[in-house]
Structures are given as C-alpha cells and as structure tokens.
Amino acid sequence: MGLIRRTLPEVLTALGLAVAPWVLPVLGFAPDTLNRIVMWGLFGLGFDILFGYTGMLSFGQSAFFGTGGFIAAYLLTNNILSSVLAALVIGTVGAAIVGVGVGLIALRRTGIYFAMITVAIAEVFFFLENSPLSDYTGGENGLPGVPAPVFQLGGWSLRITTGWSMYGFLAVCFFIGLVVARRIVRSPVGALLVAIRDNPLRVQALGHAVPLYKLTAFVIAAAYAGFAGGLLGVLQGFMPPEAFTFDTSGQLVMQTVIGGTGTLFGPLFGAAVWLYLRDFLQGPAGLGSAWHLVLGLVFVLLVCFLRRGVLGGVADLIARFTARPHGEAPEESAPITTAAPSLASVGPAARQRVPAGVAGAPILETRGITKRYGGLLANRDISFSVREGELRGVIGPNGAGKSTFFKMLTCEVHPTEGKILFHGRDITGFDVARVCQLGLTKSYQINQLFSRLTVRQNVEIACLAQGRGRFRLDLLRPLEGVPGLATRVEQTLALVALSRRAEVAVSGLAYGEKRRLEIGLALASSPTLLLLDEPLAGMSPRERAETVQLLKNIRHGRTMIIVEHDMDALFELAERITVLHEGTLLAEGTPAEIQQNAFVQEAYLGGVAAA
Amino acid sequence: MLNWPNLASQFFNGLALGTLLALISSGLTIIYGTLGVLNLAHGAMFMVGGYAGYVVWTLTGSFALAVLGGAVFVGVLGVVMEFVVIRHFYARPPEDQILVTFGIGIVLVEAIRLSFGGQSVSVPPPSWAMGVVQLGFLFYPTYRIAVLGIAVIVLGLLYLLLYRTRLGMIVRAGIEDSGMVDMLGINVFRVFLLVFGIGAMAAGFAGIINAPVVSPTPDVGDTILVETFVVVVIGGIGSFPGAVLGGLIAGEILSLTSAIDPSYSQVMLFVVMTLVLVLRPQGLLGLRGRG
C-alpha cells in the first residue's frame, strides 16, 4: 500500500507521458512542441531543486545548458563518439564539473548577489562560445549535423528519427530524470535543502555544512541543464549558440514560475503553457511578434497575484474545497510532568565523538577570551571553566556581554584573543557546524525554527546531523531509511511534549510550544554540552513553570549552561552561577554565595543593598 | 594593433564607458540601497531612455530636448512602476522582487520591439559635438568627450543630491538602516517613490546620451544590465562611491582588453569580478554583512 502511494506520482507521470501524444495534438500541440516541452521540463527538474526547493534563484542556467549541449554535440559531430547516449552522459558530467567551478564562485554570496553573479557568469559563457572557443563550437553558426540515437537490441535496431520516436526517446529521458529528482527531493539531502531555504543559519548551527549542500543543489541543477542541452542538439539535429543566451535562462525561470515552483512538475507544465501560448498567439490568434509581450505580461501578473504558479494555485483550490469547514480544533499539547521519558535513550551516550570524560572533569574552558568590535570591548579576558555534568547559570545586567560571550562559546563569533577548550580540545576558530558535530550546541534566545516545516520535519533536520556528519551525499536514500532517525525524532518530541503536535506546521504553534521546539532542536542533536540562551524569555507564568520542569527533566547526564534574566528560576536550577559585568567576569559561586556577594548586589542594584 | 595612439584612444573610450556605467550603476545601487529591491528592469530603462529620446528628437530635432525628454520619461516610468507594482513587493521575499522586475523588463523590451521594430534607431550627436578633436597625438570624436563631460557633471549632481540635501541624507540613512528611518517618522513611501524615479532617470539619461555612440536596439539594455551587475559586485552594492569606482574599473577593463583582443573583454571583466569576490566578497567599497 505504502509503495503504491509513494510511487503514485511516477506511475501517473508515466501514464501521462504515454497518453500525451494522443491527447495533446487534439488540443493543438504540434509534435515538435511536445518534444520541446519534455526537454524544457527535464531542464527545469534540476532548476526546481535549486530554486523551488533550496530557494536559490539563478539566472545563469544557460551556461550549463550550453556547456552540456556543446560537449555532446562536439563529440558526436567530430566522430569522437558514435554513441549518442555516451555523448549525452559526458555532456552532463561536463556541465556538472563546470557547475562545481561556477558554484564555488557564485556561492560566495547569497540572495540578490547570487542572482547577479549567475547572470554575469552566464554572459561570459556566451562570449566564450561565440569567439575564443568558436573553433570548437562553430561560433555564431553552432554545430550542425548532430545525429539521432540508434539503439541495438539484439539483432533489432531502433533508429530514433524525428516525430514520435523522438518523443518516445525524450519522454523516457524525462521519466528517468523525474525518478532521480524525486529520489533526491525525498532523501536526507532533499530535506536539508528545504530547511536551508527556510533558515540556513540554523541548519549550519545544527551541524550541517550548508555551503556544501548548496553547492550540491547547484551542481544537480547544472547536471540536469547539461543533459537537457545535449537533448536539444539531438532533438534539432543542430546545436544552436542561442542555448547560451540570457534568454534561455530567462525562459527557464519564467516557465518554472508560471508552472509553479517546488513541485518538480512546475517546469514541465510551465513549458507546456509557454510553448502552447507562443504557437497559439503567433498563429491562430494572429498576434505575430506580440506573443512575447503577452507572455511577459502574463508572467508579471502571475508573480503579482499567483506566485505559486498555476499548479500551486490548483493545489490551493483543491485544498480549499477538501478542507474541513472549520479546520481541526487546536489540540492542546500535553503538559510537562516530572514523569517525562528518560533521557538516556537520546542522551550523550549515543554519541561516539569525543570520549566522555571523567565526571567532574572540565568539559568547557575559556582562557582569557576577549572580543573587540572595532573600538568597542564586548568581553575582556574571561577565563572560566564548566565541569562535566554541571548546570551553570550565567547572569549579568543588560549590556554585560552575555550574548557575545555565549556566541563565542558556540563559535558563532570568534574571540579576538584567548582560547576555548572543549573536552580539552582547542576549538577556537572552529565553524559552528563542526562544533555542533563535536557535541556542543545551543538553543537561541529568539526562536530559530524552520517555519515552513512541520514540527516533525524540524526535529528531523536536527536529528540528521547525528550519524550523517557535516556532509554526506546520500542523495538516493529515502529519508525514512536513515537508521534510527524515526526513533530519535519520537524520543525528542516526547521529551519536549510535542508528540501530539508533530504534524502541525510551526506557524500553527503557540509561543510556548515554539520555545519548547527551539530547545528540542538543540536537544535533538544530542549535545554533551547544551547552551540555553534565555530559554524563559517572553513566556507566561504557566509556560515558565513548564519549561523549568522541562529543563530539570533534561539536565540529568548532561552539562548545561543557561543565560537567563529570570533570577528565581536560575537560582532554583543552577548549581553554580557566573556573573558577568561590563564585559568581565565579576563573580562565581553557588546561588547562595552569589546572593550574598556585595559586588553582585552593587552591580545589579547600584549599591542600594550595600547602603 | 597595439600602439600608443590606439591604446590612448581606448583609454578615453574606457573613461567614457566607465562614467556611463558609473551613472547607470549608481541608479541601480541607490534603489537597492534605499528600497532593498534589485531592479532587473534597469537595463530595459536604459534602453527606453534611448528610444524616448529618439522620439523627442524626431519630433523637435533638438538634441538637448531629446536628452531631457528621455530622462524625464524614464523617471516618470520609474515612479509609475514603483507606485503600481514595486510598492506591493517590499514585504515579499527578494526572489519575488527579482522575478517581477525581470518580468517588467521583458514587457518593456517587447513593447519597444513591437512599436519600433527590431532594428536599431539612430540619433545623431548635436551639431556642436560633431567631428573630431585633436588630443596631442590622436584624433578623438568630439561627442565621446562630450559624453564623458556630461556624465561627470550628472554624477556630480547626483553626488550633491545624495550628500548635500535632506533627501540625500534620508537616502543614505536608509542605506545604513532602513528600519530606523521608518521609525523616525519619515514618510518612507514618498522617499521610495522619489528614489525609484531618480534611479530610473539615471538609467534613462545614460540611455539617451549613449544613443549617438551606440544606436539603440530593443536588446541594448541586456548587456548593460550584466555590466551594471558586475560594476556593483566589484564596487559593493548600495555604495555610491563603489558604483563610481566599479564603473571606471569596468569601463577601462572592457576598453583596454578590447585594444588587445575584443573577444576577451567580457571574459576579463568576469575574471576581475571573480578576483574581487574571492579577495573581498563585499566589494571594494561595500560594507561587510550586507547582502
């Protein structure tokens, strides 16, 4: 049953591709248009993974489309290879390799910079093709005479010609591309890409090497582009230099947006709309060259009013009609009790990173760390040490430098001077993801959740770091197949009392629940040292009591450092307290000692108590 | 091919192209800096400037009026575009802003292609700037020197506007921290409208003064847009001095490489952009942590 449900899109696609040659011509599609739709749809599979799933808008896909196309066409037209399939594969690999190089440059920046750089790079490829490399690419003339594939099956040979056999060949290529793309989207990498789109900083803080995953998405898109480019040459029997133009990239973007992003089918559907309207407007509608203007206007209107594209709009409509009249009644999550599940199962014992030290040995040590921001001294010469198994509180008036200090501990910012040791190992200057992999992570003062994902998906992202390491290319393994993932997710959800809310989107959670999920994300990576930045911030009294109970529940067998403004809660929880004042360490001791400390009273109350 | 007079004339070409790119890029960069929107229709606005100027020139025969008409038309176009479309995109993700301006760019290009055909139109230089002047050992077209001069003057005016007026102060404050400006009770929407208009006008103005050098075609803006992107990546987006510096660097790279082998000029520009990205990702005069 599960298998049928999971492969339903593939089965329907296969059926659709098989039926299309009988149905679409009736609607007025020319055979050649059909071939092009499939080719653009394949091109768009990779682009949708890059843009729709990972959120990276590239206007430079023409570079890879052209590269793959010209490599394949060059190999075939110069009789270096006789097998069309082999040439297509080499073209795809070539485009992917170029994708690595371009990606390394373009991914140095994000957002609009990324978009601008891809535009510039694609333009350079056009110029390269046009003159310096024209001996190989034919310059403005392109490469004519690209042969069609011939398949030998036993003694029977199948020659692909123009028309329907070409369509069959392209449809099979698209189908293979779709199956692979769906595997990628449903793999752990696919899950991470969607999370990166939502909140890249948190993905990194949970121990995943975000830049490498982004590069992966970029290279996947480049490979699909290269494959589609090769098919363009085969389809036309001619590799046109126009493949490298900005218009190619632009058309891909527009078709994908028209069809709908983040579905994999959007680009195919968008290509059908685009090419059909082009033929229709130019021909029967008698608009001639105005077709492009009309399509441009359609595109602008869609971006303004139907950003999720035609497929997204249809999905929304279906959802509206099938939804229950009032939706599900908001279900209260269970209150946290002292009888919460044991931690041993998700606890640090499960990790094999840093050998667990002797209880009581220092787990984290700072030696004279100082942080300067220009002329501003945020932290000065702080040396402190936390023992294994300890629960340490860090307090200090506003502006005492607590946040900077905490950020240095998790390696979000690096100290100007001094050293940080974790389990005796110098981690100064390490990357956040690496530190998390070593077993040190934090929950944020301001929730850093994946707001478009469900509670379960959020926890999955956090749990994935364990066992997979910072980077792994398990592109074809289903997410459900990651050993132990489901168990770890369930345990974490139970720990933060969100099991019954697992399928709710984060946007539908109450504030207190979001806070618990925030702590749950940090817990899910099974840290040996957990840092909590104001876990009680902004909570109602009831939520506070619940969260304090949660912290008590999770503290066994774990070392924790908590920054908190709520003194009562902290004095109740912590064994030792460190007080920061004006960027330096003012005092350290048991809660009772700190409450009696004259310097601390002075710092907090401005000497009133001393008077 | 490579001799002193040729190199010198290419150097002047680079200067003229550089100031032109600086002008267009400052339009793009102040729009981005203030509104946070990357305008992909900026190249199309450059192109529309050329055509609007051409129309005024055919009607009046006056080059000065053509320049004025081209710049004002595109400025108004920018204001309308901000008011009708862009305004509704401030709260939407940056990708959506990029997509919608990209779409508007296509609509503008295709509308012009439909109205004027795909062929180039030509606008002659004004009579006082025809012919050539002798600069020591080389003869140089008078109009190109005029372009250089005009672009420098307009850049100077833009500088005065940004650094010596109240509007400029708000714009620069907005680049530093747009949320704060909003909180200070300044009507940001009116400022945004003005800034978008001024930024568009800079592109349109460049479009018409460049028309006698490179005859406008509907697609003339595409290359300009790409070069403008490279300029702001090199100079640092949101920075007016960065746009000027980046423009001059890009102009010289394009022209001087052309003196050696024209087919490598774009490639060389890209190499320099890559170097900047590797060595100083925020751009030469850009602020760290932006974009």
How does this structure look, described?
- The complex is a heterodimer of chains A (611) and B (291).
- Helices cover 53% and strands 12% of the residues of chain A.
- By secondary structure, chain A is an alpha/beta fold.
- Chain A folds into 2 domains: 11-245, no CATH class; 358-605, P-loop containing nucleotide triphosphate hydrolases (Rossmann fold, 3-Layer(aba) Sandwich), CATH 3.40.50.
- In chain A, the strands form 4 sheets. In chain A, strands 10-11-12-7-13-14 form a 6-stranded mixed sheet, sandwiched between helices.
- In chain A, helix 11 (246-259) packs across helix 12 (266-282).
- The longest helix of chain A has 27 residues, at 210-236.
- The N and C termini of chain A lie far apart (77 Å).
- The relative contact order of chain A is 0.11.
- Mean pLDDT of chain A is 87; it is low at 325-330 and 340-358.
- With 291 residues, chain B is mostly helical.
- Chain B has one domain.
- Chain B has helices at 4-35, 42-60, 63-84, 94-116, 142-164, 166-176, 178-183, 188-210, 220-235, 240-260, 265-279; strands spanning 132-135, 138-141.
- In chain B, strands 1-2 form a two-stranded antiparallel ribbon.
- The radius of gyration of chain B is 19 Å and the shape is globular.
- The mean pLDDT of chain B is 88.
- At the A-B interface, helix 5, helix 11 and helix 13 of A face helix 4, helix 9 and helix 11 of B.
Features of the shown structure:
heterodimer, A: 611 residues, alpha/beta, 53% helix, B: 291 residues, mainly alpha, two-stranded antiparallel ribbon, 11 helices, 2 strands, 3% strand
